[in-house]
Amino acid sequence: MKIIPHFSLKSLNTFGIDTHAEAFVSVESIDELKTALSQKDYTQKFLLGGGSNMLLTQPIPGLCIHINIKGIQLIEETDGEVIVEAMAGENWHDFVQWTLDNNFGGLENLSLIPGNVGTAVIQNIGAYGVELKDVFHTCETVEIQGGNERLFQREDVHFGYRDSVFKREEKGRFVITKLRVRLTKTNHKLSIDYGDIKPALGEKKITPKTIAEAVIGIRKSKLPDPKVLGNSGSFFKNPVVSSLHAETLSMQYPNLPSYRFGVCLTKIPAGWLIEKCGLKGHREGDAGVHKKQALVLVNYGNATGEEILSLAQKVKKNVLEKFKIPLEFEVNIY
């Protein structure tokens, strides 16, 4: 374990923001993580995973700890189900592919989501009608202050829409080190009714693998590759509004896409709202709204975090004025 001063973070955040950490260390085991957390020379600790769900607007003070702990293993198995464990530093999509290669169902709709396993829990990632909470079993953590280990059961995490206890009351208290999910071997609960999955499947047999292939194809056609064009995936959450408000909007906009969300609530795609504000493809310097998916903000090369944040605030302002709907950031701002 080596601590490096004044370390560039440009290659470790998917926006490609050129900023730096006062000090940086990459940890590859839980013991190394505990050692890094115990460093008294740095009063501030910043935890970095896959760098995919974040926007860096300034240099990072203190010690930046890169969670690079790897490993995937089968923990339990019955005739119909398995419990699989993945370490926090595993790439999320690689983990999904591992489960599909082993013919396990449950994560197929979450294919090609950028980021790592540990941060997936914090965000309760979701796509095409499925969320991580649907298969979550447990996760293991290390307390930032003190280094104690703690196991979180599903009921402890208080999952919400792109939300969890780790973004609220336990924010900044724990580092997630392991995730365990409960997946199916047979009688898969397949979800194909959201978005364009059904048309993408065509006449193919419906299996976890074919659903994953459809999702990957859809995402590649709409979303830019962070390795080619800096971005952090969906920048905004899809807003949830009262069904009455949604019905009022649908009278003005008959083609308004919407999805029932519990009792008396409706979810509306943020990308549609942004596009209707005329901002799809909008660009200010090297900060822009993606030309194919308005939900995604992009860095065309040398945009700063402040410039992308300024564009995001402009998007929020336009949507609020036009639709009376406040957008929330899905991306964490630092």
Overview of the structural elements:
- The protein is of the alpha+beta class and 334 residues long.
- The chain has nine helices and 20 strands.
- Strand 15 (259-260) and strand 16 form a beta hairpin.
- The strands form six sheets. It has a five-stranded antiparallel beta sheet with strand order 6-7-12-10-11. Strands 1-2-5-3 form a four-stranded mixed beta sheet.
Notable characteristics:
334 residues, alpha+beta, four-stranded mixed beta sheet, 9 helices, globular
Distance between the termini: 25 Å
Shape: globular
Q: What's the pLDDT, averaged over the residues?
A: 95
How many helical stretches?
9
Radius of gyration: 20 Å
Return the string of H and E elements. Answer: EEHEEEEEHHEEEEHEHHEEHEEHEEEHE
User: Which bin fits the share of residues in helices?
Assistant: 25-40%
Structural class: alpha+beta
Low-confidence stretches: none
Strand fraction band?
Answer: 25-35%
Would you summarize the structure shown here?
The chain is of the alpha+beta class.
Strand and helix layout:
Layout (H helix, E strand, L loop, with lengths): L3 E5 L11 E8 L2 H8 L7 E4 L5 E2 L4 E8 L4 E6 L3 E7 L4 H10 L15 H7 L2 E2 L2 E2 L4 E8 L5 E5 H4 L16 E11 L12 H5 L6 H15 L7 E5 L5 E3 H10 L6 E2 L4 E3 L2 H7 L6 E2 L2 E3 L6 E4 L5 H19 L8 E2 L1
Parallel strand pairs: 2-5, 3-5, 4-20
Antiparallel strand pairs: 1-2, 6-7, 7-12, 8-9, 10-11, 10-12, 13-19, 14-16, 15-16, 17-18, 18-19
